[in-house]
Amino acid sequence: MAGALELVAHRLGLSPSTVSRAIRGQPGVSAETTALVEQAMRDSGIALRRYRRRQPPNPPSNAVRSIGVLVCDNSAGGMPGYVQGICRAAHEAAVDVHVALIPATQAEMITASNLAAHVPVMQNTSLDGVILIYAWPLSAIEIISRRCPCVSIVHQTYLPKIDHLMLGTEDAVRRLVIHLWSEAHRHNIGFFGACNGLTWSRQALLYFRQEMDQRLAPLQPSQIIPAAEEALLGMSSEWSESVAAAIESTRAGTTAWLCPNGVSASALMAGLAESRLDVPGSVSVAAVDAGDRPGSGITTVQFNTHNTGATALSLLCERISHPRAEGRTILIPARNVIIGKTTMPGR
Predict the structure, then answer these.
(1) Which of 29, 79, 194, 245 is 20 to 30 Å from 239 by CA-CA measure?
(2) pTM (2 d.p.)
(3) b or e along 60-86 (b: 16 or more beta carbons within 10 Å of the residue's beta carbon)?
C-alpha cells in the first residue's frame, strides 16, 4: 500500500510524508490539503480506515473547548449530515458543541444590538468560534463573525477572515446532465428553480447552460423556469406560477427537469402529480442538492456531509488559532449520482 500513497502524492504534487500525515490526522497539514488527499484516495479506491487513527484531521488544539453550530431551520439540504460530522469529530476531540436552529425570518432581523436576543446561544461567553450552516443572510454572518471566528458551510460569504466550504456545483451539474442525457432527453432537459438572488441557484443554472451548450442543445425560454427566493429557501409555499409554467413546458415536450435543491424538486413533483404527469414515466426530475431526507427518492448527487462537518471543525480550529489569516474556499466534491425513483434515463 506504500506504493499507493506514493501514487497519490505524485498525483497531487505532494511529498509522501505530507500525504501520510494528512490521512493520519497529524499536525502540520492544512484542512484544505487533507480534504484533497482524502478525495484523491477515495478516487483511487484506497481505504482510508486502514491508515486513520480515531481522530479528525488536524485535531483541535487544547485551547478549543466550546463551539456553536448555527443552522437556519429552512435548510433542507445535508444539514443533518453536517451537524453529525461536526459533533462526532468534536466528541473525539473533547470539544463541546452547542447547536441552535434559527428561523430564517429571525435571522433576517439580526443586528449588532439584538444578536443575543435572536441567537441566544451567542450569550454563551465560552464559545471559541461558530460554524454557520446554509442560508444565513450576509449581514448576519458579518455581525456574528465580528464576535468570534466563523466557518460557513454551503454559503458563499465573500467576507474576509471567514472560511467556507462550498458544494462542487459544477461537477454535480455535469454528472446529472450526463445521467439525464439520452436519445429521449437529448434536446429536452429544462431547469426549474432559477433565481438570480441566490448564488447556488445562479451557479447551477450557469453550469447547466454550459453543459447544454457543449452538447449543441440550445435552450428555449420555456425550459428555464424561475422561482421566488423565498420559495427556494423553503420560506414560502407559493409555487403556483413556476409549477404552472413547468407543466405547460412538459406538455410541450420537455422530458426532464434539473432542479437546484430538494425543495424545488419536491414542489415540481407535487405539481406534476396533480396534473397527472407521472414521474418518471412522463418526465424525469433530478436535484443538485436533494439533502439527507430519507425516503425522498429524488435522483441527486452524493456529497460526503459527515466528512465535510469534520473538515469544518478543523477549519474553525485553525481560524481560532490564526484569526488574521485570509479566508479560504474549499469545494466539497461530488462523489457519484444517486439514482432515485424520479429519473428514467435512456427511456
Answers:
(1) 79
(2) 0.69
(3) beeebeebbbbbbbbbbbbbbbbbbbb
